[in-house]
Amino acid sequence: MNYILFDDQDRNHLLPLTFLRPVSAIRCGIMTLQEKWERRFKIDFSYFTAKYLRKKFPFVILSQNIFINGALFPDEGLQKEISKLSSGQALVSADNKDLLAFIATEKDIERLSLSGLDFLTPELLRGFEIKMYHETYIKISRPWHIFSYNEMAISKDFDELTKGRKSALLSQTNRIVGEENIFIEPGAVVEFSVINATTGPVYIGSSAEVMENCAIRGPFAMCDSSVLKMGAKIYGATTIGPHCKIGGEVNNSVFFGYSNKAHDGFLGNSVIAEWCNLGADTNNSNLKNTYDIVKLWSYPEGHFVSTGLQFCGLIMGDHSKTSINTMFNTGTVIGISANIFGDGFPRNYIPSFSWGGAAGFKKFIFQRAIDVATTVCSRRGVNLSETDVEIFQTLYALSE
């Protein structure tokens, strides 16, 4: 049986975070959604995502294929119902809004022309037997769900990753509260810092480093090979993905990985994708002076929509950068490969490949954007491939 994680109709609502990845590659908690499913089923998944991404994230088809919605958090109830499905059956939410899973043959995929689509919905499965799922489930369908669900996700991932294992020893130079809720992977270094895990678990990944005088309050996840700079202040629920460098004050935020906020400045209730860099003293507001509900830019709707949240900060797409002393208003959305600089507050929505700030923006020259991305990736020993450049070209054309 072949397992596939598919994007559904909410894929575009998760932009800019899904411009360069399938929905299942989003990190929430310690692991990505894909890693959670693969760990639960003990098998590798392929992807059904936007056509322009499939060269990098291949869509593998065999004679029998189990499709699972890549935006879902796995749980026992879903796993049980998915395991009951037979070929030609689909599992749909009780309100008929979400397609949760289905099993299709290679002929079904060809008959329904699924390969020509960017995402899947319940209405597409003509001729399938529909089974309704009446239990509750958790699904990431909007960018702010990522930091909103992060506390729950860290706790579940912590239990999954540490079950039956023993933490590496913490140095006696540290001040610890709630040591039973702290797990240190082999090779991690933590010295002269304060960790309070009574408010939630704290996970430090392999080869990660917590420098001196950091203050960490759980729930907190720090993935492999990341660095917490001296004197950092971290409030839960925060996730630092792999290969990041983080300093200053951070509250309830998620870094996907390979991004830096190495200096002082505040970041709260935010999501930062990969290959981003926040310059020294970059700050964001996560609460309006009027205490009103925050609105965020919606790509598919073409206007700002209510998040229903009083606290909501910055959503930043991959490869975007800020200069020193950059300031962001509450509920700012930045596309991919944007370069923001200058004094004052830039607009609350900054399109991809923008160059400028509060004084105005112009289009980032494509080759220059590629040159910057190539240089940044090489600093982490990663090559920007020809496929990556092709994806950038597609998105640059769309951004026109």
What is this structure, in a nutshell?
By secondary structure, the protein is of the alpha/beta class. Helix content is 17%, strand content 27%. It contains seven helices and 35 strands.
Name the CATH superfamily assignment of the largest domain.
Answer: Hexapeptide repeat proteins
Q: What does the main sheet amount to?
A: 9 strands, parallel
CATH fold assignment of the largest domain = UDP N-Acetylglucosamine Acyltransferase, domain 1
- As a percent range, the share of helical residues equals 10-25%
Gap between N and C termini: 42 Å
Low-confidence segments, ≥5 residues, pLDDT <50?
none
Strand order of the largest sheet: 8-11-14-17-20-23-28-31-33
Radius of gyration: 21 Å
The top-level CATH class of the largest domain is Mainly Beta
Question: What is the number of domains?
Answer: 2
CATH architecture of the largest domain: 3 Solenoid
Q: How would you sum up this structure, described in words?
A:
This protein is α/β, with parallel strands linked by helices and 400 residues long. The protein has two domains: 2-133; 144-399, Hexapeptide repeat proteins (UDP N-Acetylglucosamine Acyltransferase, domain 1, 3 Solenoid), CATH 2.160.10. A nine-stranded parallel sheet has the order 8-11-14-17-20-23-28-31-33. Strand 1, helix 1 and strand 2 form a beta-alpha-beta unit. It is globular.
